[in-house]
Amino acid sequence: MGAIVVARSLRRHGTTRSIVVMVTPNVSQRARLGLEGLFDKVIVVDVMDSEDQLRLSMLRRPELGITFTKLHCWTLTQYSKCVFLDADTLVLCNVDELFDRDELSAAPDPGWPDCFNSGVFVFRPCLHTHARLLEHALQHGSFDGGDQGLLNTFFSSWSEADISKHLPFIYNLTTSSTYTYLPAFKQFGHNAKIVHFLGVMKPWSSQGRTESSQSQNMGRFLTLWWNEYRAQKNCQPPASEGEPPHKFEKTQQVQREGAKSLFSKKLEISDLLLTQSSVQMEEMHSMTEPKDKEEEVKVQEGSKGEEEHHGEMHTTQLTSSEGDFHPEEVKGPSQFLPLSHTPVNSPVDEDMSPSRGSKDIQDSPLITEGLDNSQTKTRVSEADRVREELQRRQLWEAGQADYMGRDAFKNIKKMLDCFLE
Ligand SMILES: O=c1ccn([C@@H]2O[C@H](COP(=O)(O)OP(=O)(O)O[C@H]3O[C@H](CO)[C@@H](O)[C@H](O)[C@H]3O)[C@@H](O)[C@H]2O)c(=O)[nH]1
Ligand SMILES: [Mn+2]
User: Fold this and answer.
1) The CATH number, out of the four listed (3.30.70.1050, 2.130.10.10, 3.90.550.10, 3.40.50.300), of the domain defined by the range 1-231
2) pTM passes above 0.80
3) Among 28, 37, 220, 359, who pairs with 324 as Cys (CB 3.0-4.6 Å)?
4) How confident is the model at residue 194 (pLDDT cuts 50, 70, 90)?
């Protein structure tokens, strides 16, 4: 879903460069066909995993080991220069000027601004660099277990050597900036060129609940993301079904029909996902609905550049560790909780321990029809609990922690102690 949005948003803003996606072999044929309708090229690469579980667990993101797969981008030597975009980015305007930069250009990471964030970066494919990167990985590993730690120690002069390699933050505006530095976000946020939904909560996993100060800020980007995703549904199908793959149909009304039926439908996106009630789907719809005309995304007629490659491209990566992605089965904002990602680093108290929050539910099947009443109740209440945790995390991330209650210092300390042990 992320990769689709990246491609669509690049095209919407008239990129003249080729758009390429790297996928791993476990991405289904069907999903690849969907991607082929949008990307100039779908390139299959092997999974590379740092398998550095210790460091990744420090980051609380064990799933990020496979981001080593990104390193394959240096093998795309049919292109002379590329811009890598994470699959959780959304392009807000034409950013082709990024190709004026040189390797390795990237924006600061908001968590440690002397490191660059590896969700958006300019690089030059080169087999020699690729080999050196792998060698570096073997010798030194990655200090955070993911590609970002590795790339930062490899391109270690980034923070000091050449200011032209520092991309402005607006090329990689991470969503956390709304609560880490809200006044700056208010002052400069409207200049954003690429939004990056960094962190455990992704647009496709969010419930779209943005009641806090985030609602006017990130909620807007979330709306744009969903509009872009839904617009896409009307502009394929893939080449094999007759339609020119890159011809977009004019204007798309946001599709609403069908969303309610999601509840009883077993979706195959991942067995880590849990459907939610149709009532909440309705809520989600109203949250993501454009609030005013300005926010409405208009789909312009456009076509993929016919020119041959200019030796440059945008690239993004998609891997899927679980099951197939069937775009056509998703009718609107998804109502899924990414259980593997659930309450990672929000403060924990007795009732909210990660084991209760994720493991139990991970083990339970999807909510489906045909369960007897008591079973249904148990599972629904489990779903409620996970939902509650997710809401709590969102409030926490929006700077609205319940400091007097469950997010009290003693609970935070307990979690830190547990983490440090
Ligand atoms: O199952 C997965 C997981 C990741 N990815 C790709 O890898 C990227 C990075 O993962 P993401 O969840 O976006 O990581 P972030 O939350 O952005 O975390 C940070 O840390 C990661 C690990 O170092 C870096 O890759 C990111 O660029 C950096 O922003 C994704 O966008 C995808 O392109 C997949 O394709 N499939
Ligand atoms: Mn990312």
Assistant:
1) 3.90.550.10
2) no
3) 28
4) very high
